[in-house]
Amino acid sequence: MIDRDSTPGGLRRLLFLAGFLFVLAAALALSRHAYGAPALVAIFGLLAMVGIAAVFALALGLIRIGDGDRTGGIGKDFLDDLPTGTLITDRKGRIVYANRAYGEQTGASSSAEVRTLERLLSREPEASEAIYRLANQARERVPGEEEFRLSRDLRQGVAPSPRWYRATVRALGRTGEPLLAWTIADITSEREEQETFFRDLQHAIDYLDHAPAGFFASDEDGRITYLNATLAAWLGVDLAEFRPQTRSISEFLTEEGRLILLRAQAAASGNEVATLDLDLVTAAGQRLPVRLLRNSSRRVDGRSKLTRTLVLNQRPSGEGDPARAAEVRFVRFFNSSPMAIAALDAMGRVLRANAAFTKLFGEAAALGGVMITDCVRDQNRETIRQALLAAVRGQAGIPALDVQLAGEAARAARLYVSANSDIHDGSGEVAILYGVDITEQRALEEQFAQSQKMQAIGNLAGGIAHDFNNVLTIITASVDFLLLNHPTGDPSFQDLILIKQSANRAASLVRQLLAYSRRQTMRPKMLSLTDVIADMHLLLKRISGDLVKLERRHARDLWPVMADIGQFEQVITNLVQNARDAMRESGTVTISTRNVEAAETAGFGYAELIPADYVLVEVADTGSGMPPEVAERIFEPFFTTKEIGKGTGLGLSMAYGIIKQSGGFIFVDSVMGEGTTFRIFLPRHVPSEAVLSLESAAAGASQASAAAAAKDLSGTSSILLVEDEDNVRSGNVRALKMRGYEVHEAASGLEALDVIDEIEAEGGHIDLVVSDVVMPEMDGPTLLREMRKRRPDLKFIFVSGYAEDAFAKNLPEGEKFGFLPKPFSLRELAVAVKTALEE
């Protein structure tokens, strides 16, 4: 309709130039000018040269005749016939070009009626804002596109009806003044097609939402991208609040359901439909039995892209469907059973398995990727093969199998193999395998057996120590009597001193045995382990030697514990000495302390460790380490890896007993070539003011009585000495009579009751009873209870090779008595008697 950008063609330019030259030549010739003839010759000479050059250029192909560039004409033809209305304007809004379609779209019948879109639509409220945005973009040379709806048609003579238009603008890249290209197109039919499509899609979604079956779609990570209303109602999910990919399908599955789904995803291939029977968990926590029909589309690399799942409700609809109810019950039993269940073929390959089987044996076995014999250790494979052969033969009563599962971690299982009664049903199943994880049971059994062994060894050690203490008491008392008659200058004095030193050394070994059996005498008090270990630093430094570096790492605000400071120091000393011996040349021994809360105890992996608040003491070395078979026996008495004469094997057993008697735990972790770490867990102690004041008063009274007894150990009181060992009793009677006491003796508890009855019948009086604890017929605690019935105020001293706590628990709460541990010297006996009489 309008084309103000047209320019003359090449032919017209050529004709104009030729005419000009001829007119110029004719004018010069007719004017008879002096230079006319030369000018005419020059013009024709120039034309001749141009002609010759054109001939040569034509021969060389540099010039073509009749094959000019018609691109401009083609472009204009294309714009003229373009069905989209196109308008080209300059920067000032003047129209440069408009094609026929533009006139038809805007209702212009002639070039005089053509107007720009800005002028045409600026008064249309429905399109003015869109055109304004396009105009601003055009001025900034930014292409733009807008769609708008008009209540009328822009064309003339057309019935008024709402129409949709799409307008675009872009700047044309010309070297001269930039132009703007506008287009306008009627897209009403396109919009109607879209609305129809979306309406049909909404109907399809509505049909799917209210279908009698559930449906959901999920991505490769299991996140739900779509959930229909039926399934949402079953699960109790509010669709108004649901957002795609914010929830995972695993949130609505039981643990066994997750394993079944993972196994199905691993086995999925191509676009085949997988059928799964499992339980969904609703928002109210109820189980919903369903059947899932899953189909997955895969990417080129094999990963799952999108999974579509149809959910069928398997809940029985009424009493009239017993078969379906039985099927649901069986599927639920099979999937949720805590026992691993699998159907095997004759080769031992799994054909079907439940979630518990997958958890116990792994996905590869559950999917049939490996045979069941490959899931156990080498030593158990033959027994499983024999059980499968028995199942193939249809044998009944196949014995249960205890096997070790393959893998780095030590895991055990008990397997039951049952023959399939109908092996010709076409399924290939010849045996049903049931498995139970007995790893924890085995660990508890081994722990109990170890505890029983340690207890038995402790009882044996305690019994030996008790009998040995009586022998040492006789030796010590006899040496003390001999030393009274053999002064320092006597030739026998040195021999007696050697006997006494040897007896004391034997008594030390006995104390170590008692420490292991947890029957030694302990005087626990509240301690700060940081202070205790700091006070021991110089001693530990001497023990570790010059080649070994000793480091201490203490946490702040360490909790107090209750322990015997002397015994605890002995434990630390022994551990540091063993750490030094484990490093032949140089190394580092690290002693560290910190608090361990109850929630942290499970992280250590010690089954024996009871959850509670503890103070942890670690003694670690960088030595050679120990193999597992040595670490298992490290706390046994007389077990040692040292050379003969360099250790008794009682050090660590003594440490074990001391820590156990203190209510704590001691463990060892060792790696060959890296070192060993001993961990001591002592229970946290929370003191009370009443206990602190009572302990302070008791300590003061004990010190005062001990000081008083040290001044004068003689007396005239009447004492009843009860001891079943004749030699021990006679030595003690002799020692007390030498101090001036009136001593009565009895060989048993029953005899002691008769003696005290006879003395009181004759008008006598017993001030103190000194009794052994372990005696035939009647032990010491029973004797004390019987005598309390006769004399509630009678003073009592127990003599025993065991710890005070070993028998005090058999006495009434609050019972007061003295205690003298065996073996003891004559002076220690006199001090104990004097102290008890003065209390």
Mean pLDDT: 79
How far apart, in Å, are the first and last alpha carbons?
133 Å
Number of strands: 28
- Rounded Rg: 54 Å
Task: Give a brief rundown of this model.
The chain is α+β, with helices and mostly antiparallel strands and about 850 residues long. The chain is built from 26 helices and 28 strands.
Can you tell me about this structure?
The model is unreliable at 690-695 (pLDDT under 50). A six-stranded antiparallel beta sheet has the order 1-3-2-6-5-4, with helices on both faces. Strands 8-7-11-10-9 form a five-stranded antiparallel beta sheet. A five-stranded antiparallel beta sheet has the order 13-12-16-15-14. Helix 14 (439-485) packs antiparallel against helix 15 (493-516) and helix 14 packs across helix 22 (726-738). The longest helix is centred in the middle third of the chain and has 47 residues, at 439-485. The protein has 839 residues and is α+β, with helices and mostly antiparallel strands. It is elongated. Helix content is 43%, strand content 21%. Helix 24 (780-790) links the parallel strand 26 and strand 27.
Descriptors:
43% helix; 5-stranded antiparallel beta sheet; alpha+beta
List the helices and strands and how they pair.
Layout: E1 2-3, H1 10-30, H2 36-60, H3 71-81, E2 85-90, E3 95-98, H4 100-106, H5 117-121, H6 128-139, E4 144-150, E5 163-172, E6 179-186, H7 188-209, E7 214-219, E8 224-227, H8 229-235, H9 255-267, E9 273-281, E10 287-298, E11 304-313, H10 322-336, E12 340-344, E13 350-353, H11 355-361, H12 363-366, H13 378-392, E14 401-404, E15 412-419, E16 431-437, H14 439-485, H15 493-516, E17 525-527, H16 529-535, H17 537-544, E18 548-554, E19 561-563, H18 565-582, E20 587-596, E21 614-621, H19 628-631, H20 651-661, E22 665-671, E23 675-683, H21 689-711, E24 718-722, H22 726-738, E25 742-746, H23 749-761, E26 768-772, H24 780-790, E27 795-800, H25 804-808, E28 818-821, H26 826-838
Parallel strand pairs: 18-20, 24-25, 24-26, 26-27, 27-28
Antiparallel strand pairs: 1-3, 2-3, 2-6, 4-5, 5-6, 7-8, 7-11, 9-10, 10-11, 12-13, 12-16, 14-15, 15-16, 17-19, 20-21, 21-23, 22-23
